[in-house]
Amino acid sequence: MRRILIAASCASFAYGASLSTSHAAQSVAECVQVQPEAAARGMSLRVHNQCDVTVRCELRWSVRCEDDTAETPARPMTLVVRLAPGHTRDLLASGEACGERIWEIADDAWECKETR
């Protein structure tokens, strides 16, 4: 079995704020819930849209593998999901880029915006 190290900040997934400063973006950040849970293959994320509008959410994280040197750049990963009002999706922030090596998820962030 592959060993993993999950260094993701659950708080930033759960309480991440929209990077935009517009009033609409702040409202969306308040009505979209992202609930993280550790999983064998990464970080499981349940994204629930409680807004009255369809939203597009982008989740970003970096993966570092065992034996990476200080000069080895982290592997940036992204998942994008579009959710209608009241819908939920389960996503996986995965460390599979490292194969069988120990991996770490870090630099996690999410941003949701209203789609038009």
Helices and strands in order, then pairings?
Layout lengths: L4 E2 L3 H6 L7 H9 E8 L2 E8 L5 E11 L9 E9 L4 E7 L8 E12 L2
Parallel strand pairs: 1-7
Antiparallel strand pairs: 2-3, 3-6, 4-5, 4-7
Organism: Nannocystis punicea
Keywords: Signal
Protein name: DUF3019 domain-containing protein
Instruction: Categorize the overall geometry.
Output: elongated
Total E-strand runs:
7
Low-pLDDT runs of 5+ residues are 6-23
Q: How much strand content do the residues show?
A: over 45%
Total domain count: 1
Radius of gyration: 15 Å
The main sheet orders its strands as 1-7-4-5
* End-to-end distance: 45 Å
Please identify, by name, the CATH architecture.
Sandwich
Biggest beta sheet summary: 4 strands, mixed
Give the fraction of residues assigned to helices: 10-25%
| Oligomer status | single chain
Number of helices: 2
Q: According to CATH, what is the topology? A: Immunoglobulin-like
Class by helix and strand content?
A: mainly beta
Mean pLDDT: 78
Q: What's the order of the H and E elements?
A: EHHEEEEEE
- The CATH C-level class name: Mainly Beta
From the structure above, extract its key features:
49% strand; DUF3019 domain-containing protein; elongated; 2 helices; 116 residues; 7 strands; mainly beta; Immunoglobulin-like
